[in-house]
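Subgroup meeting minutes
Present: P.N., E.W., G.H.
Scribe: E.W.

1. P.N. recapped why we're keeping a running log of single-chain structure predictions: easier to compare across weeks, and new members can see raw inputs and outputs side by side.
2. G.H. added today's entry (249 aa).
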Amino acid sequence: MADVAYIPGEAGRERRPAVGYTMVIGAALLFALNGTVSKVVLRSGMSPLELTQVRATGAFLGFALVLALTRRESLRLGRRELPYLVVFGIAGVALVQWLYFVSISRLPIGIALLIEYLGPILIAIWAWAVFKEKIRRRIWVALALALVGLSLVVEVWSGVALDGLGVAAALAAAVAYAVYVLMAERAVTRRSPASVTCFGFLFAGLFWAAVQPLWRFPAGRLDDSVSLLGQLERFSLPIWLLLLYVVVA
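Output recorded in log:
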C-alpha cells in the first residue's frame, strides 16, 4: 500500500451545484424505493443483519468491479488513511445500514425516516458547536420545514403505536448517519466518491462477516418467492431478485 492517500485530480474538483442537486434528488428517490423493497425482504423472515450483510458485500463487489475496469488507481489505499476508512466503514456505513433496517422492521417506514432524519440537524449542531461554523438562518429553517413536512406526510398525530426498540434504533441511526456524512465529507476531499463508497462497503462487509460468518447465511431461502405487500400484495418475486435491487439501487 502506498504511504500517500492522495489520488491525483480528486482534490479541487470543479463544483457543479446543478449536478449535485440532481444527485441528491436521485438519491432521495432511490433511498425511498429501497426502503420499501427492504421492508418486503425483512417481512420474508430475513433479519436486518443478514440484509445489511448482503447489501454491504454486494455493493462492495459492484463498486470494486466498476473501479477496477474504469479507474484502477482509485483502488490504491494508503496506510495513513486505512484507520479512517475502517472507522468510516464500521461507524458510518455498517451501523447506519443495520440500524435503519432494524428500525423499519419494527416501525412504519415514514416514522423511522422521520426519526433518522434528525441526522442533518445533528450535523448542523456539530458544525456550529465543534467546528465553529456559522450556520445561516435559512439552513435551520429548511431543516425545520423538512421535519414538519415529513411529519405531515406520515401523519404522526394518527396515534401510531411505536415500538421502543424500533425508536431506539432509528435514533441511533440518526447519529450513525451524521457520522457517515461528516466522515464522508472529509474523505471525498482526498479520493473519489466512488472509491470512498467502495472502501466503506468493504469494511462494513468485513465487519458483519466477523459478527456473523458468511456460511451461516440462509442461502437456501434465496429462491423463495414473497409477496410485495400493500397494493401489490397479489404479486410476488424471488428474494434473490429483491436483494439484487437493494444492492444495486
